[in-house]
Amino acid sequence: MFEYLTSLNDHNLPYPDTIHPIVVHFVIAMVLFSFLCDVIGYFTGKNHLFEVSWWNMFVATIAIFVAVIFGQFEAGLAQPYNLAKSVLNMHTLIGWSLSGIIAAITAWRYVIRARNPQKLPIYYLGAGLLLTLIVGFQVYLGDELVWVYGLHTVPVVEAVKDSILP
């Protein structure tokens, strides 16, 4: 039984496929939907959308730490080759930073909600826009790691094992 937990498959993982993208796409969707609800609620006066936004950010805050943990684990198993290392390092740095940024924005959102759940300051929308832009850049880097550099894809894993890629 232990050999199944310690052996790596053809994706260089101890389980069938990557988990990080599954969890991280959940976080991305929740952060973007939260910002959308805040914008619509702010400009239409539909304050019930602020509650939807709050719960999305709350769950996204928890989920991003799960995504970062799996991302770190899977990045360590990826054995990135030289060309991919700088992109992976940037993706890792921004991922850890986003976990703190999302937690801070969610804490700020909690304070706003506790003071007056019917109002949202324009500064918070600005922070949400900035967060959306950072998430967008992070998505770009993650896409690049998969679609350009092929991390955890079978041909790239085999090329690294065969020392074809430096």
Layout of secondary structure:
Blueprint: H1 2-6, H2 20-44, H3 48-78, H4 82-115, H5 122-148, H6 154-161
Class based on secondary structure composition and strand pairing = mainly alpha
Note the run of SSEs as H and E. Answer: HHHHHH
Average pLDDT, to the nearest integer?
89
Radius of gyration in whole Å, from Cα? 19 Å
Number of helices: 6
In helices, the fraction of residues equals over 70%
Strand content: under 5%
The main pleated sheet reads as: none
Number of strands: 0
Instruction: Write down the overall geometry.
Output: elongated
Subunit arrangement of the protein: single chain
Low-confidence stretches: none
Ends apart, CA distance between termini: 34 Å
Account of the 3D structure:
The chain is mainly alpha-helical. The chain has 6 helices and no strands. The protein has helices at 2-6, 20-44, 48-78, 82-115, 122-148, 154-161. Helix 3 (48-78) runs antiparallel to helix 4 (82-115). The longest helix is centred in the middle third of the chain and has 34 residues, at 82-115. It is elongated, with a radius of gyration of 19 Å. The two termini are 34 Å apart.
